Structure formats: structure tokens, C-alpha cells
Amino acid sequence: VTRTSNTLYLTVETATQPPVEPEEPEEPVDPQLPTGYVAVEYIENTSDSYVDTGILVQDGIASSVDHSYTEFPSGGSYMLAANAKIGGSSNDRLYLASVNKSKNWRIALGSASAVALTDLGTAQLNVRYVADATVNGTSFTFSLTNKTSGTAAKTVKKTLSAAVVTPDEPKTLTLFVLNTATLQYPAKAKLYGCRIWTNGVAKLARDYVPCYEKSTKRYGLWDKVSKTFSPSNSENGFVGPEVPGEGEGGGEGEEE
To answer: By the 8 A CB rule, do 211 and 227 touch?
Structure first.
């Protein structure tokens, strides 16, 4: 403060404030997934990618598979299937979400034979279907919903030649491929979600959410039941929608 004659001057010095650093945005929290995983709409197989669910073929099994086909290979498309034992043969097959080479939905009734469910119509490319199947003793119930058109579910009930039992050489249900003596007929398809129950829908055994693992830049499935991540069991990884913030690596579906 200085004073000249009757005039008073006041000088105020202001301290220079350091620039405020912007806060790092917090990673969005997905209640379905732990930190480091990002939920995506779907995962897609474009080669021979598949997931082994670890669930043995057995009586009382049920499933719900939300999927769409992007291509129809000549041998058929098997989204959820495996060898089973129905009526004494270990070479029978249990199809829970599959179409044959004619694009008809199919189920297995024993003795390695399959029945095409022609009254459900043929599967179409890039149409989102939910295939629900339940095996209870000799009763096989299959329900199909077209989510793209929003049409009501169509249900078919068939009788198996005998109850399904685990084969002498146990096989587990696989997604995107048929699990027999070898892995056959990979489905070129997108998977939006899958649930598997055992003991006649009494126990939820798998509840899969399509996701992206940020640390490895891989697409796969997060199981909310076992709380584990399943990438492709083959050398070729799944692909999926681009993941924001992951740069060029996000969305490639390649394993490191």
C-alpha cells in the first residue's frame, strides 16, 4: 500500500496457480463382469473357434442359445452339441442348437439319427434366434424364437428312443462346434449369450456373457456362475465389436 497526497494506491499480488490436471476417467463398472473385462454384444467365429463348456452330456439338461448364423457351411452348423448315449449307442448325438446342411433345425433321437424340424422353417443368415432345448427322460422339447422379427416362439416336442446318458467316453457340450471323436462342423456364427442348466433346470450351470479381456486383447465368454473367462479353445480367436479405448488392438480378436 502506498499513499501519494490524498490518493491511496493498493497493489495486490496474486499467486500463480498450477494447472489442474484432468482426472483419469474411471473404468465403467459392469455389474456382470469384473475389472478388466468389457461386455460386448456378441462374439463371432469366422474360422474354427469354439468354447468347451465343461458340462457333460446328461439327462435333465437344458439350454438357451441366443445366436445368428453368418454363413452356412456344407456340413451343417452346430452351435451347441456333443456325442451322447441314447438307447445303448455311444455314437448318438445330442443337438441342442444346430441346423443341418439344408438349414433345417435338428435334434437327435438316438442310434446316431437326427430329425429335421421342418415345421420350424429354415434358418436364415444374419437373423437372431434363441434356441431353447430341454431333455427330460425320453422327452425332448425344442423352442425357437426369432428375435429379429419379434415373432412368438414355436415349440416342438419329440420322444427320444431312450433317456440320454453320459457316453462311455464322456463328452462335454461345446459351443460353435460338434464334439464327437473329433471336433467337427464349426458354426460360422455370432453368439449373444448362452445358459445351460442341469438337473431339469433346477441348477444353472453356465451363464455366459460375451466379453473382451483387456489384458490379452481377446474376445470370449465370461461365465457368471463359475466366474471364469473362456477364450477360444482353438489357436484362432473370436472376433467381436470394436471396444472403445482399445485402439487398433480392440476389435481384432487376435491372441497375443
So the answer is: no
C-beta separation of 96 from 203 below 8 A: no
pTM of structure: 0.83
- Which of left, alpha, beta for 227 (phi over 0: left; psi -120 to 50: alpha)? left
CA distance 85 to 58: 9
N-to-C CA span, the chain: 68
- Cβ atoms < 10 Å from Cβ of 28: 9
Per-run averaged pLDDT (10 residues), the chain, 256 residues: 54 55 54 91 96 92 96 91 74 86 81 74 96 90 94 88 76 89 88 93 92 97 97 94 75 44
C-alpha span between 133 and 135 (Å, rounded): 7
Q: Is 140 exposed, middle or buried (0-12, 13-18, 19+ CB in 10 A)?
A: buried
Handedness of CA 204, 172, 52, 79 (dihedral sign): negative
